[in-house]
Write a structure and sequence with these properties.
Length: 381
Amino acid sequence: MEILKELETIAKQNVNTTLESARSNGKKIMGYFCSYVPEEVIHAAGFIPYRMRAVESPGTSLGDTYFAPSICSFVRHCFSKALNGDFDFLDGVIFMNGCDHNRRMHDNWRYAKIKPEFLYMLPVPHVVSDASTQKYMNEIKKLARAMETEFDVTITARALEDAIILYNKKRDLLTRIYENRKKKEVPIKGSEFLSIMLAITALPIDIAIEKLELVLKGLEGRVVSSDDDLRLFMAAVCTEEIEHMELIENSGGIVVADKICLGRSHFHTLVELKDDPIRAIAKRYLTHLSCPRMMDDMRRRMAYMHDEIKEYNVDAIIVEKLEFCTLMAGETFLYKNEAGKIDFPILSLDRELFGGGTGQIKTRVQAFFEQVRNIKEMSQN
Ligand code: SF4
């Protein structure tokens, strides 16, 4: 499908031509880390939200001068890119307290005095309660005020409401594309879905919506799976290597469901606009399918996994952790524990982002798939 090829090209680039031309026409671009920074607020301030990424990293050697090797490779790649000037096209970057590694990137970015100048740390609560929703609302208002002051813009309630409609439209289209993977004959691979996610989080929202509509239409009658493919559920956080997912899928599997930051987590739950748009945004971002950073929500995440493996007819789980990612270390334990309760096949991979080692990963994935096939065969006999 032509549109998927186009999106894959965009996904593999740090900056795409659409962003470059928007910028040369005077549009401002705001980088942000993690799915807890509200894109609607950035859009309502007149910026294009750009999800920060490690793709096209020059390697971690520049970032390694600021960070210990016990900091995850996602952070070291992103900071290397910043030192290399790869994010100079941005007008600002919004960080959030997703994990301590990411937090330290904000500190070092300030310390190193590298571009862009506008750096903002958005503190997002770690629990869901009335008090934390109020706190998050206040923080969103502070962020809005900081952008208004720095860039001489006004964020109106009307602009926020319009942004909510647009971003909900994007969520709805992504959900419909994702749900196509329930089919016996799967019309889209996990690696293609990851390409879509990387591309649309680096495009203006109206263009992203146009592209998603084309993808959805193109899925009609399309089949990319074979009867032999194992249907996989994949769980990870800062995963963004298309080639890595291709390696897994080319070994005889197809990712049909996920719990990845650049996957279901990004578009799960719509913003329910009832009265105050900031309250509606705060509620959605705090209560959507949570990241391991959120406390007291493990049961809901594990229930999500159980539901997905049933609904998407999953054969096996692959859970991935980047080296030294403490959040995913705890989550991996939970996934293994849950899978153990129902005797469900699970493979856990520890690796570095863009770190190679493909031969070893391939061998482990192939051996795991063989094991899963044997179990399936035995249960059918
Ligand atoms: S991979 Fe883990 S440690 Fe690194 S930024 Fe993501 S959540 Fe934080």
